[in-house]
Amino acid sequence: MPRSKRDKKISLTKTDRKGLAWKQKIIEDIRHCVEKYPNIFVFQVQNMRNSLLKDLRQEWKSNSRFFFGKNRIMQIGLGRSKAEEVEVDLHKLSKRLTGQVGLLFTEKSKEEVLEWAQNYWAIEYARSGFKATETVVLPAGPLEEFTHSIEPHLRSLGMPTKLQKGVVTLYSDYTVCEEGKTLTPEQARILKLIAKPMARFQLTIKCSWTKDTGFELHVEDNINDDDDKTDSGQGDEVEDEEMDQDDSDNEDEDD
Questions:
Q1: How confident is the model at residue 103, as a pLDDT?
Q2: DSSP bridge pairs for 170
Q3: C-beta neighbour count of 6 within 10 angstroms
Q4: 23: closest CA among 214, 206, 251, 218?
Q5: The architecture CATH gives domain 22-123+200-252
Q6: What count of other Cβ atoms lies within 10 Å of the Cβ of residue 65?
Q7: How far apart are the C-alpha atoms of 70 and 72, rounded to whole Å?
Q8: Domain 136-193 in this protein, CATH class
Q9: What is the mean pLDDT of residues 37-59?
Q10: Over 60: is that where the pLDDT of 5 sits?
């Protein structure tokens, strides 16, 4: 049998990876934004969703710029110490770039951004590891919202289902999750299948810096601003691949 033309071996050593040039571009973009925008905010994300962050980027595109990626790279862009900072007190923002956080450069006033962040949220489906906000129990009986073809999948997730005259049916009551308990991957999938969102995508403004008033802390922490040592950026590994993708999308956007 002749060998298929599609049957080709690709060496992974030849695939492109984001290297020094990519990191340097982000650093330069951040420094450019420091000059361009009068206000900078460090925001923390709860229940991160790439699609919602991309929507925000699009919505704020005309007068703002979001960065959400490698914390250490963003720290270098702002300056990790008094000696490195590109503007006075920007190293204080760098110290707070830990965990799932990002930078917002904007022409909008501090008051506008704080009010918007306080009122903005979006409901999303919970992922595994999330603590259930309520107890969800499905009563025995037909599940008419599902087609017969999905019944094996429901069974594989642990649901006591069967086909009865071509209709997916629960043959006993089934507790999907209990309030306060951590969701398993199977439970998270079931909640999505039954259209039961529990998580909130939300942003919290940790601190800000403006060209007029300088640095301001909005969420109390135990970081010593007098200490010239900067956090190593722990927390970068959380959803690392998604964050990297977000940064590459961000760099493709026009200022």
A1: 96
A2: 141, 161
A3: 5
A4: 251
A5: 2-Layer Sandwich (3.30)
A6: 23
A7: 6
A8: alpha beta
A9: 90
A10: no
- Domain ranges in the chain are 22-123+200-252, 136-193
Cβ contact 174:159 at 8 Å: yes
Q: If you search the block for the tokens 């599940």, which residue do you land on?
A: 143
* End-to-end Cα, the chain, rounded Å: 55
Phi, psi torsion values for 63, nearest 5 degrees: -140, 15
Tokens coding 236: 């970068």
Closest Cα to residue 201, out of 112, 100, 109, 106? 100
In angstroms, rounded to a whole number, what is the distance separating the alpha carbons of residues 19 and 103?
21
* Mean pLDDT of the 57-85 span: 92
Question: Whole-number mean pLDDT of the chain?
Answer: 84
Average pLDDT estimate for 175-194: 95
What tokens appear for 254 in the block? 């026009």
pLDDT at 234 over 60: no
CA dist 202 and 46 (Å) reads 5
Answer yes or no: are the C-beta atoms of 93 and 209 closer than 8 Å. yes
Residue 192, both tokens: 């999505």
How far are the Cα atoms of 57, 65, 179 from residue 84, in angstroms, in the given order? 28, 22, 48
Helix axes 240-252 and 20-36, enclosed angle (nearest 10): 60
